[in-house]
Amino acid sequence: MSSIIFRTSAHFVTVLMLVFSVYLLLRGHNNPGGGFIAGLIAVIAFALLMLAETTDYVRDRLIYPPAVFAGSGVLIALLAGLLPLFFGQPFLSGLWWGKIGSPLLFDIGIYLAVIGSVLMVLLNVEEELS
Amino acid sequence: MPNPILKLWLAFCALLPLGIFLLIGASYKPPETLLYWPWIPSLDIPFSLRLDGLSVLFASLISGVGFLVQLYAIAYMKPYKGRAAFHLYLTLFMLAMLGLVLADNLLLLFVFWELTTLTSYLLIGFNHEKEGSRKNALQAMLVTGTGGLAMLAGLIMLGEMAGTYSISTIITQGASLAQQPWFTPSLLLILLGAFTKSAQLPFHFWLPGAMAAPTPVSAYLHSSTMVKAGVYLLARLLPVYGDSSLWFTLLCSAGTFTALWCAIQAYRQTDLKLMLAFSTNVILGQLVMLIGIGSSYAVTAALLLIAAHSFYKAGLFMVVGNIDKATGTREYHELAGLRAVLAISFTAALVTAASKAGLPPSFGFLSKEYLYKAGLEFGWVLSGTMLLANAIMVALALLILIKPFLKPHHPKAAPLKAVEHNQLLWLPPIVLALLSVIVPVALLNWYQGVIIDPAASVMLATPQVKTVKLWEGLNLPLLLSALTLLLGILLYVAYPRLKPRLDQHLSGLTSGPAVYQHLLNAVIKLANWQTRVLQHGHLTQYSLQFFLVLLAFLGTVLGKAFWQIHPLPSIEWDLYYYDVVLAVFLVIAAFVVVKARTLLLAVAALGTIGFLTTMVFLVYSAPDVAKTQLLVETLLVVFIAIVLRHLSAVSSVPRHSTSRRIIHACVAAGIGISITLALWIITAVPMNQEISEFYAQTSVSGGKGRNIVNVILVDFRAFDTLGEAVVVVIAGLAAVAVLAGKRINKLVSETDKEHR
Fold this sequence. Notes:
The complex is a heterodimer. By secondary structure, chain A is mostly helical. Chain A has 5 helices and 2 strands; from the N terminus they run H-H-H-H-E-E-H.
């Protein structure tokens, strides 16, 4: 894990994977992808960074604790579900304005929830063991 | 809470019940008023309220006495921490109680019933720093909660029998349900709920235990509300069950035994509050007995006694609260000379105790007269026991009045403190005392027209309403009343000699609390045992347990299917070369996992299995599933790599004993064979394509997406996904908590060592 090649390339790869994960998130509705898969890719990206650097480094780059991501993810998904109620439709109905719709918001929520909760465990395990 | 906001809040809490009281008065048009709002239309559960004589009697007691108790609590709870929360709990409890008595739907009634249990838990356990307080709150909740569950089953049976959950409709059907097979079970279950709530023998013990609550709670819960909920339910269902002989037998025996036994218990207490608590049990027993009799005299007596008891018992509790304030004790032996500091409370106590003892012209006298009238219709046994219980009530009233208030202050007695400068401490009991006299003397006709007549007409099949009069000339009940007074005075005089004797004879008996404690301990023991057996912390055992259960399940299902589909369908082998290659590699990788002696190899092989499975998904064109599988496998490897990096100790796999390996091999083989068989049988039947076709057709039109898997996840079945996301987050938090818990434990044991 201390190889210079790994440590240097990890940063690039992490960025690339994060961009890829957002891409998968956005295309998910029409092509293979979606919030859950994209979230897992983002987690693996951060795991790579964590192995190259330290957990503190990753926490620093995240700005907010992973639990905040997890919690806000669920809240965003819930919000996407509540939104249709204001338009007289049942909970979690899809609302669409052109290509943008509440299912996308829902998927973003799932994305954040997955990143937050898995990363939370990953970082804690690493910190506990080292 | 800052002062002005607190004041505003207290004022709101006090005025809310008054507002509700007036609102009920305004919207009630005798004989009945029905209010209806839809609540859960899909389950046909409306938020429907019914205002008739019976529910209005209870609702006005709850809101009226609630108003006085809120006022009293403002003064009483002043020195307590968290008094704002106390008023909140009290208000919530009151609203739950109101919902209970006004609900016109069995399920709505049950919801409010449970809400009273929950909110009363908060009230009884308000002094939560004290262990006893917590314990008694839990006891009250467990006893009434268990009864409530039984009652739910009973109510559902009743609703299904009647074909409706509307109480108004059910009581008009009357006794016609008696022929139904569920009649007796529903009766028994509902009685269990009512008896636990209204503290009937043998569930009576939670009520005195609930005296751990602050006194305003006792004044409210144990005079007019919580404990009367059971009585209300019985009175409400009287038209349905009243004709059954089981109803008469059970209610009369439970009622009389409760009244007599708790009267004796009340006589033995030295804490004034406990005396009142046990005497509440007595009144509850009498009420249950009266509803059990169910004649027009009995119903009239019950309707009088409910109000009479609410007034005098709430008033007496408040007086005892003031005694507690003035002296810091409620012990009978330590109290004397209170008249000097509690002059106004003494007046209130005098009137309310007179009502408790049944002296004319108090409300208590009136209700006792009718109690005797109802009892006499059924011979001497019922009225005889009631006479004894009432005589003890007289003795208790004298005990509370004479020594604490009138005996000169003794130097050894508790020091006295003037507390009556706070008007809110004496105003509510005085109002209740006044009501105890004014209603029977001046408002009896009004009470008859508004409460008794409409209530009796819904409770009785053939209403022959009795016109209640305070004075009916010389008759047998009046003679019994005189006898009660005489016997009561005798019991009061004999108290110093009789009480030690009673203690001597009764202390050896097994009591309700002991049985409850045994049961509770048994439950905890069972929980510990099953935790030890199932949650032993050995990962291998966990997976073994899981697979054994799976095997048992698959075995039974397959066994059944095997006999139906016999012989097994033939398989069409249309294999491609890559199917075979994948299968061979999977088998090899599985063998490597089992035979590997180092953990790294085992993990690598396990990862290989995962990735090969991903290939399978790809081959059968499920790219989303394949992707997810691939990512999960990757993460798994990352996790295990982290663990291995730090814990070199677990890097080698120990060789287990032969017997253990044989067992594991058998389970594994069993699972493998049964899954194969299951797939064999399942794929033999052509798959139902309806669901997949529905998704394929509506994905674009309904979900505006071409990726069916994603459209299902975020649109068609988004509710499931939301639930799963919550589960993922909870699992993450739990894992972190477990990890942190280890750290905390370490920290605790280290600091422990330092302290030693």
